[in-house]
Automatic annotation (TrEMBL):
Assigned keywords, A-Z: Glycosidase, Hydrolase
GO terms of molecular function: Glc3Man9GlcNAc2 oligosaccharide glucosidase activity
Domain Mannosylglycerate hydrolase MGH1-like glycoside hydrolase: 32-416
One biological process term in Gene Ontology: oligosaccharide metabolic process
Family per record: Belongs to the glycosyl hydrolase 63 family.
InterPro entries: 6-hairpin_glycosidase_sf (IPR008928), 6hp_glycosidase-like_sf (IPR012341), Glycoside_hydrolase_63 (IPR004888), MGH1-like_GH (IPR054491)
Keyword Hydrolase carried by entry: yes
Designated name of the protein: Mannosylglycerate hydrolase MGH1-like glycoside hydrolase domain-containing protein
Origin: domain of life: Bacteria
SUPFAM superfamilies assigned: Six-hairpin glycosidases
Species of the source: Amycolatopsis albispora
Amino acid sequence: MTPARLGLRARASRVLLDNWHGQSTVPSGGLYPHQWSWDSAFIALGLRHLSPRRAQRELESLFGAQWPDGRVPHIVFDAATPADAYFPGPGFWASAAVTGPGFPATSGLIQPPVHALAAWETFRAAPELARERGFLPRLYPRLVAWHRYLTGRRDFGGRGLVCVVHPWESGMDNSPAWDEPLGRVRPATAFTRRDLDHAAAGERPTDLDYGRYVRLARTYRDLGYADDPAGHEFAVEDPLTNALLAASEAALAEIAAELGHDPAPHLAELARLTAALVDVLFDEGDGCFHARDVHSGQVLRLGSVGGLVPLVVPGLPVADALVKTMLGPRFRLGELGLPPSFDLTDGRFEPARYWRGPAWFNIGWLLWHGLRLHGEDELAGTVRAGLLSAADDAGFREYVDPLTRSGHGAHDFSWTAAVVLDLLEWGHER
């Protein structure tokens, strides 16, 4: 590893060490002072190269807050952090009314299910330590319960695909892909935003959209977090969520085999999800997956990078079409080396506003992983180089302008540092 790469590794390591809070890692000390679900999965991918034990604890901590119904909440609140440090805070969600006493305070929403993939990669980093600690035997049944929650409680459309009931659940909160179904929601007005204390308004969702987010979350809470389609104004079959569930089923098959269980049910679920994704959400005309609004039945044909993430699914039959789309004018991945979060040719593209155009490092990692999975090593190398260069230049920011690589959002962002560590380690091993 060159001196420059060693320096980048040291800086990335420092971000993760500084953001570690004893049992888990916060995404960023100011803007996000608690534990976030899919953040922890990506963080574990980087932590496994610094401390495999700590990476295992990251995931164990998150699943320690799993609800009795199997859902993994998108926020686990740190009891030592002031309740008003983040909005919506623990009092807003009132999770104890559902989970009962003895559970940590959490939100009631979910985030994309990338956890089994992270757990398997974490195990592979130090298998003897993981076996000694009983990492997989303890986590496997929780992962199975999590997937069963998604497929059993969130198939609102009856097509075998998981629905998200809030833009926050997609992980790509402010994407223009959600504008149409979100536009039906009457915004709440009585709330105090905390995010603008830490980031510029031009980089964050508008007050109007934030009010709609709050309205949806309040309604779900007031319904006791019941998963009834009739109670949700926003209900969308999201390609990114379903693709990560399929990829995680493939990882569960590996975990099952390691534990001496039958991997066949997970492989069957992988095949079922893959077929449903392609049959329902893939558009042959533009070579991309698109979300589907369950209430209207309408396919939301907008150029979100989430429509490229199904490349992480092993054996995806339309992988070549996705690669062609990545290289085309809407994403220009071969030229930029960074994946814009939204179609560059669309008038709604905003290079600095949250999920409406900036490049995100976790999405870059997923595309890099999917490209290698499907034999696109040269383009994967371009993405790896682009992510490392952007992180080095911008200093581990939450996201970057894909055209200028200027940094935006939170500073010292954990999954940015984690992705950098994993990409550096892969190159070192090579």
